Amino acid sequence: MEENQGRQGLKSRRKGWFKETVFYQIWIRSFADGNGDGIGDLYGVYDKLEYLHDLGIDGIWFSPIYPSPNADFGYDISDYRNIHPDYGTLEQFLKVLNKAHSLGIRVLMDLVVNHTSDEHMWFQMSRRRIAPYTDYYIWRDEPNNWDSLFEGKAWEYDELRGQYYLHLFSKKQPDLNMDNPKVRQEVREIMRFWLDMGVDGFREDVITFISKREGLPDGLPFVPAANAIMHYKDGPHVHEYLREFRRIAEEYNAVQIGEGPMTTVQSAMQYLTGDTKSMDMMISFDHMLADCIYTEYLHLPFSLVRFKRAVSRWQTTLAGKSWNVLYLENHDHPRIISRYGSEDYWRESGTMLAMCYLFLQGTPFVYQGQEIGMTNIRLDSIADYIDVQSKGNYERLLTFEPEEKRLHRVHVSSRDSARTPVQWTAGKNAGFTTGEPWFVINPNYTHINVAAEQDDPWSILSFYKKCIALRKRSKTLLYGSYREFYPNDPHFYIYERVHDKTRYLIVCSFSEHEQVLTMPEPYCSGKLQLVLANYPGTNGALPTFRPYEARVYRMRKT
Ligand code: GLC
Ligand code: CA
Fold it and tell me: Could you tell me the residue range of the domain that residue 510 belongs to?
């Protein structure tokens, strides 16, 4: 194996280093194919690191790249200490890690320990009651009434063992028994394995679900999917167990980012502060529910007021106490332009959306393809979709609706829209692969692609670069306070960041029509300087905002 300079590459991981980092999330299967087999891989990643560096990225979060039967595309892990053969080898991973470090880019792995794949050796041993794996999973003679979040009931009968096992997600994702100290020991060792190799931290998958209520009491009747969430979300021992993991991460100054569906800011604070602190950041979900109830499948018209309320709640609650994760897209959500923006005003809304979140307090994450404004796909039938969650929703929610309506729901909600190959060029297969792509490519690649946007100073891609660069050179945008103006305005999202003598005002119009703005105090009288705008030749003094227009102003206290 290549000499391990992973740890030397970026030696000084000082406390709080992640606060000035801009992360890019790679869902590798669709990022870039380096060896022509139609599947994205670590060879492709290696070749694109300069592209990310040029974008201003200095951190990567890899969605799972471990061996996995792909029932949930990597979130069902069958070996925690290796790389999926589709994506490369450990040696290639080290090459990527070392090159990333030499470019000043940190690397995070996805730690998925609420469950494993049913093909993991531990599960295979556990089914056979072979020590020490017998109690690595949650086995019962009789199931309770819990639903799986993905498909059917949360219990599956195993012939070999003669018992049922719990799976909160798909059948192929049995939940680990975290109450077993041996399982927690395994988790700590997995963390060490990657940290010793030189990775800089972890995004921790559904980490708020790892401790189940004792006795596994029944959940609610007649509520599909999340009927028992109160019995496993923020469970009785979750903080105790996470404190054990925290000690490992702290030794390395590694960052820990927690994920927990339906986390409220109050429950997030338990993970972020005080004696129960176990995470540096928690991924919020509230702001992703501005056009739906609970899941995008149950969609509603987008409400800017709902969006702003959610963002501001997290910004103000965490202020001075913790640190936010900022994001608009990831592998679990459809594309943001198709949701909160407009495909008709593709460039305008794509750039505005970038501005609206990149200057908030916290650490931004950009999801692959977001920086070029990729949009949702529309497939002809449910059979063409591949995501287990989309299929599950289609099978069990509002099934009385006509087919057309149900397909529409899948179209606007499917995680598959985030999982089509990244569009690099207007050429064959969007430049993603020289072979047969493993999944459909969005036909709009002919005009939405990296190559077309690279040289256009007003493209979405160029705008992401400008925003990231501006953020990086401003202490105010990094560390300033946050205040929102006109919270009930249905068209404008306006906030300021203030630090020392400098104020920034960020103004974003979410309207398809022209809107006139009355500047809030103290910006109506002071000397304002327009520092960034998403329309060429913007006159910052004009009160009229064009569709999806966005501007950043600066004001210096005198
Ligand atoms: C998280 C992941 C999601 C996955 C689920 C189960 O929510 O982000 O992709 O399906 O956990 O692991
Ligand atoms: Ca490949």
Answer: 480-555
Report the domain count for the chain. 1
Give me the residue label for tokens 């792509």.
437
What's the maximum distance between 2 C-alpha atoms anywhere in the chain?
Answer: 76
pLDDT in tens, 116-135: 999 999 999 999 999 999 99
Indicate whether 546 belongs to any domain.
Answer: yes
The answer to the question of residue 538 being in a domain is yes
- 51 burial (CB, 10 Å; 0-12 / 13-18 / 19+) is middle
Helix (H/G/I), strand (E/B), else coil: 551: strand
Give the per-residue pLDDT at 11.
54
Q: What is the CATH number of the domain that holds 502?
A: 2.60.40.1180
Ligand 1 pocket residues where CB is under 6 Å: 72, 75, 112, 169, 205-206, 259, 261, 331-332
Q: Token digits for 557? A: 């206290």
Residue 246: closest CA among 236, 256, 237, 238: 256
* Atom 3, ligand 1: residue with shortest CA distance: 332
pLDDT digits (tens, 9 = 90+) for 51-90: 999 999 999 999 999 999 999 999 999 999 999 999 999 9
Probe residue for ligand 1, chosen from 61, 68, 72, 111 as the CB with the greatest number of ligand atoms within 8 Å: 72
Q: Give the pairing type, strands 139-140 and 163-166.
A: antiparallel
Task: Identify the burial level of 146 via C-beta atoms within 10 angstroms of its C-beta, where 0-12 means exposed, 13-18 middle and 19 or more buried.
Answer: buried
CA of 37 to the centre of ligand 2 (A): 5
Q: Which residues of 427-454 are buried (b: 16+ CB within 10 A; e: fewer)?
A: eebbbbbeeebbbebbebbeebbbebbb
Q: Does this model's pTM top 0.85? A: yes
* C-alpha 461 – ligand 2 centre gap (Å): 25
Distance 335 CA to ligand 1 centre (A): 17
In this structure, is residue 406 part of a structural domain? no
Question: Within a domain: residue 511?
Answer: yes
- Please provide residue 516's backbone torsions phi and psi, each rounded to the nearest 5 degrees: -100, 135
C-alpha 30/C-alpha 126 separation (Å) is 34
